[in-house]
Amino acid sequence: MQYSLLKEQYENHYTQNQNRSAEQSRRMTMLKGLASTIGIRDTPLFQLLLFSKIKNYIRFITLRQIYKNFEDVRNMTVGFMHPNIFHSFMNLGVQLEMVEQESHLYRLRESYMVEEDMVSRLVRMESSNYSNTVASILEDYLFVTEAIEAKPSSKLGRIMNQQAYIYMKEVLTYLQEINQLNFFEQITPSFTEDFYTDLGELAFNIYTKENYQQYISQKQFASILDIGCGNGNYIDIHINHSAHIVGVERQEKVYEKLQQKYRDYPHIQLFQEDILDIEFNQEFDMINMSYMLFYLTVEEKEALFNKLKKILGKNGIIVICQYYPDFEVYQELIARYNGKWGLMNRYKFDICNSILAAEVVLNNMLVDFAQAEEWEPFLQLIESCGFEVEEIVPADETYYSYFITIKHKSGGSDDKGYRD
Ligand SMILES: C[S@@+](CC[C@H](N)C(=O)[O-])C[C@H]1O[C@@H](n2cnc3c(N)ncnc32)[C@H](O)[C@@H]1O
């Protein structure tokens, strides 16, 4: 969708917040009831059963962290906590409809409150005489945990190892890192950095690849720069259509795999470097950055976009594939425009938005990242560096991530002085 049209609609929109109510709609409740009667069987309804438990799975992780970290759950404020971690966590609570915000103060909703003598049991993830709401989120948490940990030889494990569930299983496992959340400082995750590169590859093949192929089908690029190219998912798509492709990847292990993969392709040039340290003396028609901006601080991003200003050709484009927590209104507008705002889609978007809000917490709480991406600050940053957004297209069926097309503001200039 052209950004100019989206912006115009955004300025005139009024929020209906319909996708949240999709969770409680009569039709969804009936379908979920049916899925739960059929239970753990290899039928299409199992996907709905698992899906219907995801929000509660994240809710339990969230509730446990609230009780672990805040003495007064009616009055949660940032205090000396890390602001990005605190705010993205509270945003997750609001997204899950567990937390209410009143200016700088956050309050846990009554239905999620736990009696004082049961708090330590809740933090230990043990059952107790909780309210129905809390008991049901714990039950769903345990169900999802059992599903992601199920032995491959078990009935549940066999279902979960199917292609349709592999990515979901990885993501739900990843979200369990929030169980280690520290509100005061970023922590080291329990996996190595190439985990994200491999998770990205899985997501790309399942959800993004076809959309990307369609998205670029009418476009031709003679030269491409792929920043943070990971395992080369995007390079693969362009490999036979572009004369010169440059991939930059700072991780040694990932870079070595890339070198091996493209050893017979002289038109692909690879650099094992940090994009901030590398200088180019050429221009590119297209610059790709997929799930990579959250590795950089605001200052680093500014330096990067100033660098890109010099090396992006006059009519060139930057394509960013990214998710944003403050994007729900745009999601609705784009979905309505594309005729994808039916009940089932709204239900799917809502669950995925909860996963997204949790992923944003991870982008803030783990040392591997600088800070989560947010749409409004991002927009301001690129505009201040002389760029503008041209188009926004969903990168997957769940409207989780988007391809953001950026170009030089007012057509750019012929002399960008990249040889300075
Ligand atoms: C989440 S992965 C995504 C990979 C690929 N773009 C994709 O979408 O499949 C991000 C990659 O960016 C790399 N990266 C992060 N910061 C970087 C930097 N400053 N310079 C170069 N590479 C970077 C990481 O090592 C990682 O492999």
Low-confidence stretches: none
Estimated structural class: alpha/beta
> What is bound: which ligands?
S-adenosylmethionine
**Order of strands, widest sheet:** 5-4-3-6-7-9-8
Radius of gyration: 22 Å
Number of domains: 2
Q: In angstroms, what separates the terminal alpha carbons? A: 36 Å
Question: Biggest sheet, in brief?
Answer: 7 strands, mixed
Keywords: Methyltransferase, Transferase
InterPro entries: Methyltransf_25, SAM-dependent_MTases_sf
GO molecular function, one term: methyltransferase activity
Protein name: Class I SAM-dependent methyltransferase
Short description:
This protein is an alpha/beta fold and 420 residues long.
Description:
The chain has 2 domains: 20-185, no CATH class; 211-324 and 373-411, Vaccinia Virus protein VP39 (Rossmann fold, 3-Layer(aba) Sandwich), CATH 3.40.50.150. The chain has helices spanning 3-12, 18-21, 26-38, 44-69, 83-95, 119-123, 132-149, 155-160, 163-175, 194-216, 233-238, 252-261, 298-311, 328-337, 343-365, 375-384; strands spanning 99-102, 105-108, 223-227, 244-248, 268-271, 284-290, 312-322, 387-394, 402-408. The protein is built from 16 helices and 9 strands. A hairpin with a 2-residue loop joins strand 1 (99-102) and strand 2 (105-108). The longest helix is centred in the N-terminal third of the chain and has 26 residues, at 44-69. The strands form 2 sheets. Strands 5-4-3-6-7-9-8 form a 7-stranded mixed β-sheet, with helices on both faces. It has a two-stranded antiparallel ribbon with strand order 1-2. The protein is globular. The structure holds S-adenosylmethionine (SAM). The site of S-adenosylmethionine has 21 residues, from helix 10.
